[in-house]
Amino acid sequence: MLAKNILTKKTLLILSLATLALTGCNDDDGDTIITPVAPTTSTASTPTNNANTTANNNTTTDHQPSPTATPANTLATPAVTYGVRPFYLIDDMDNGALKNQLQSCGNQTPKRTEFSIAHRGATLQFPEHSKEAYLAANQMGAGVQECDVAFTKDHELVCRHSDADLHTTTNILATPLAAKCTQNFKPATFDAQGKLLTPASAKCLTSDITLAEFKTLKAKQDGANKNATTVAEYLAGTPTFRTDLYSQTGTLLSLKEALQLFKQMNVKVTPELKEPTVAMPHNGYTYDDYRKQLIDTVREAGYTPEQTIVQTFNIDDIKYWIAHNPDYAKTAVFLVDDSNFTKDGMAFSSQNPATWKYNMAELKNMGIQNLAPATFLMVTNNNGKVAASEFAKQAKAQGLGMIAWTIERSGPLATGGGWYYTGINEITNNDGDLYNLVDVLAKDVGVKGIFSDWPATTTYYANCNGL
């Protein structure tokens, strides 16, 4: 009898877990630059015991989802989860109202939000643009996923940050395909005293190989050891603030495959057209062919303009889409930083419009409706506090939609945060200061989303503030 009761209880437990695995809940979000996709059905999150943690928290904490099978077109994944990082950052914040508010949301139920944009996936710990990075970002509640787009030798589109980064983002140098690279590995050289004379180098382009060959490679964390004398040493160049713990698989994807994966996740997509480093036309393939192919591929995958945020640093790409794909141009964003927004002969200042290559009214008159500025363009140091910059104020005044890039890409912030924190370095001295930046971008600048290398951080903030 005892054995029978134990078996019965075990059976009930298994059935209960199976029911939980099939439970669904609604993941629709707040407003964004573009119209939301239909609500995502995902597996259930654990309900919180706190029914109303904060006035700004619109998460329904007493929601009890009813059992339902996962739709065939939706990826069956674990519930949205924050993990430990948001809580680490909150604990590291200086005491104040923002810290108190974020702490008050500790029991909220995680849910997907389009405010949380995955920057090449969850790239703080997973190889960028890999299937594994995208899956991790999906579990962290990212409502928008990014594929930077480059083309192969046979003019197929693939997810890579650059057409010239295979030697630092994949294992190509350790494979026979290294012989096809524009420049195979060259070891570092040193003088008799051990001083570096020439750094180790290589150059492998997506256009050096076909899509079929590309698919045989494995993604790795972006990085290279410039002091390397062997290929193995060169490939072991992961930045110290990242990890190789999750680099064992590193599945590469074409744009078509990535879009199919994102469709199963039921999230929006933000492909970025990367400017080729090779001369165009490339074996008869023109730059206009490339621009057109991106839109055609997105459309053929079933992504409507309302579900798509096409990106580019090249303002002529936006003009091309306005002329040839006006539906997708409405939601397209012009990516900007000091490299493409500085007036000739000037030093860029986010506080001085005289240093800007374009004024906001000009952009609006061109038909550009959305900007994606680097974070440092949108904030400034105002008497020791992070505040909206003049750049952000003027963009907002012109009604330009804005999304920001990129947080959690600088490593520990104890030394000021580096390039992404230009202008606020002096008031950035601990990891928790990241949430001060996020708060100003969201509330004062009014961005509709933030790119992050670890989407759980922005998901947590967005859930806590009803975004």
From TrEMBL:
EC nos? 3.1.4.46
The catalysed reaction is: a sn-glycero-3-phosphodiester + H2O = an alcohol + sn-glycerol 3-phosphate + H(+)
InterPro entries from the UniProt entry: GP_PDE_dom, PLC-like_Pdiesterase_TIM-brl
Does the keyword Hydrolase belong to this entry? yes
Pfam families named among the record's database cross-references: GDPD (PF03009)
SUPFAM superfamilies named in the record? PLC-like phosphodiesterases
- UniProt keyword list: Glycerol metabolism, Hydrolase, Signal
Task: Report the leader peptide range.
Answer: 1-21
- Looking at the record, which segments are called Disordered? 36-74
For bias type Low complexity, the affected ranges are: 38-74
Q: Give the GP-PDE domain ranges.
A: 114-462
GO MF annotation, one: glycerophosphodiester phosphodiesterase activity
Which GO terms are recorded in the biological process aspect for this UniProt protein? glycerol metabolic process; lipid metabolic process
Report the sequence similarity comment from the record.
Answer: Belongs to the glycerophosphoryl diester phosphodiesterase family.
Task: List the PANTHER family.
Answer: GLYCEROPHOSPHODIESTER PHOSPHODIESTERASE GDPD5-RELATED, GLYCEROPHOSPHORYL DIESTER PHOSPHODIESTERASE
Please give the name of this protein: glycerophosphodiester phosphodiesterase
